[in-house]
Amino acid sequence: MSGEHRQKLEEGVIASIARVCHIYGIPSNLGRLYAQLYLSTVPMSLAELAEASGAAKSTTSVALRRLERYRFVRRLPRGSDRRDYYEALTDPAEILREWARHFLQPEMSVGADMVADFERDLERAVAAGEYADDEAATLRERLEEMRGSMHFGQMLIETLSKGGPLPFEGAAPDLRPELQREEEQ
Question: Which residues of 18-31 are buried (b: 16+ CB within 10 A; e: fewer)?
């Protein structure tokens, strides 16, 4: 079923998601493809997505792989027609949990190693007299800031990984008036 209001809604959502992607340096075609899946109430095949987006199957396939890697899209098991079908992850909390598990946790592991190496190497350099007292104090402050950020990041990951509603769900302010003012300037 198609109509004027439905078309306006779909075009608006697709354009908005494409703009958000552009803000983050993500190609807008990924946003349009995600929006197609977001608006679909049933999983879609590669051919259906290519047709709906007006892109070649090869371009659509590459974009879908990126969206899967970014954890915005899930590939479903092949059906009896042996085609892959895709669906959008639509729950922001689920997307954040996926990001925490697949992106933030590995980054935190690297960060923890970096903090430990920084501290060890700084103390060795200070003991060898390679830093003046004021330089060492500045670097120790930066180390503590980094350690605090790592602690905050770990708490965030633990909160996201627990599942259930996030403490800030439903608390987001309406930013549309502010965004409109920025666009007008």
Answer: beebeeeebeebbb
Closest CA to 95 of 73, 116, 112, 78: 73
Could you give the strand order of the β-sheet that contains 85-88, starting from the edge strand earlier in sequence?
A: 44-45, 85-88, 73-76
Choosing from 54, 88, 122, the residue where a domain stops is 88
Q: Which of 99, 95, 96, 119 is nearest to 107 (CA)?
A: 99
Instruction: Tell me, yes or no, whether 43 lies in a domain.
Output: yes
In residues, how long is the chain?
A: 185
pLDDT tens for the chain, 185 residues long, are 568 999 999 999 999 999 998 898 889 899 999 999 999 999 999 999 999 988 999 999 999 999 999 889 999 987 777 888 999 999 888 888 888 888 888 888 899 999 999 999 999 999 999 999 999 999 999 999 999 999 998 888 888 777 656 555 555 556 566 656 666 66
**Domain housing 8:** 4-88
Do 23 and 99 have their domain in common? no
Domain count of the fold of the chain: 2
**Do 69 and 117 belong together in one domain?**
no
- Judge contact between 70 and 112, C-beta under 8 A: no
